[in-house]
Specification:
This protein has helices spanning 10-65, 72-79; strands at residues 88-93, 102-107. By secondary structure, it is mainly alpha-helical. Strand 1 (88-93) and strand 2 (102-107) form a beta hairpin. It is rod-shaped, with a radius of gyration of 28 Å.
């Protein structure tokens, strides 16, 4: 036997295995957290895009017709804005025919089960 090489013991191998498993768990947790943050950012972006599309359609209606639309149905029918009503709740509050409506988009919780 070479006097410069060390004999590997089972405790040394166990320590390496535990260290490798710990590093793997840390990397997996980091990837999971990163993926959920990306999904959260994408969801927020979709909410804002829908809100802006409705506001732009209302402003376009005001420019073309002289009044803001009275309902979301009018925007859907005449300006082609659509959304998944099972995923988003859109609040469209009118304060007057010559005042920009207040548009708020809320995400609906997914039903689990």
């Amino acid at each position: 036997m070479n006097r410069f090489t060390q004999k590997r013991t089972s405790s040394h191998l166990l320590r390496r295995l535990v260290t490798t498993a710990a590093v793997f768990c840390c990397i997996a947790a980091g990837l999971f957290i990163g993926a959920s943050k990306v999904q959260e950012t994408a969801d927020d972006s979709q909410l804002e895009s829908l809100r802006l599309a409705i506001v732009r359609s209302a402003v376009h209606c005001y420019a073309m017709e002289g009044a803001y639309p009275e309902s979301l149905d009018y925007i859907r029918e005449h300006y082609g804005v659509s959304w998944d009503s099972e995923k988003y709740l859109v609040d469209y509050e009118i304060t007057g025919s010559n005042l920009l409506p207040d548009v708020t988009v809320f995400p609906l919780k997914k039903k689990e089960g």
